[in-house]
Amino acid sequence: MINLMKVGVLGLFLLAGCTTLTVQTDYETGYDFQALRTYAWLEDKAPSNDIRINNSLIINRVVNAVNNNLKFKGYKQVDKDKADFYVNWFGGIENRIQQETINTYYGHLGYDSALWGYGG
User: Fold this and answer.
1) Distance CA 106, CA 116 (A)
2) Which pLDDT value is given to residue 55?
3) For residue 81, how many C-alpha atoms fall within 13 Å in the half-sphere facing its CB?
4) pLDDT digit string (tens) for 30-56?
5) pTM score, two decimals?
6) SS3 2
7) Whether 48 contacts 91, CB under 8 Å
């Protein structure tokens, strides 16, 4: 159960770097996270059914970025049976429609009476 919690907390941190959504975390406050030294990837399953995410280019970029960041922080990747915690990721794409209006009419020419065709 604790390993699952560790994966969840790490997953939330990873998602925070990919989005502007508000991230909330919940963890056992008495747990000694300083004792964690080794990690392993949880599954080799595809992170999504969407072909825009489920391709080797995206998967390799995410895995390499996570590995580099964890290595920089002093964690070592090991076999699954020797890991202190597990890492996994999931991806998704949200389609949004953005509407932009481009006006094709001309505005008025100002308040100068010569431009309006009257005056004297």
Assistant:
1) 14
2) 80
3) 0
4) 999 899 999 999 876 666 677 777 788
5) 0.54
6) helix
7) yes
> Are 52 and 93 a contacting pair, CB within 8 Å?
yes
2 — phi, psi (to 5°)?
-65, -40
- pLDDT in the model for residue 80: 93
Question: From residue 63, how far is each of 22, 76, 94 by CA, in Å?
Answer: 23, 14, 21
Nearest to 10 by CA among 108, 118, 90: 90
Weakly modelled stretches of the chain, pLDDT under 50: none
Break the chain into its structural domains and give their ranges.
1-18+42-93
Q: How far apart are CA 40 and CA 86, in angstroms?
A: 5
φ/ψ of residue 38, rounded to 5: -125, 155
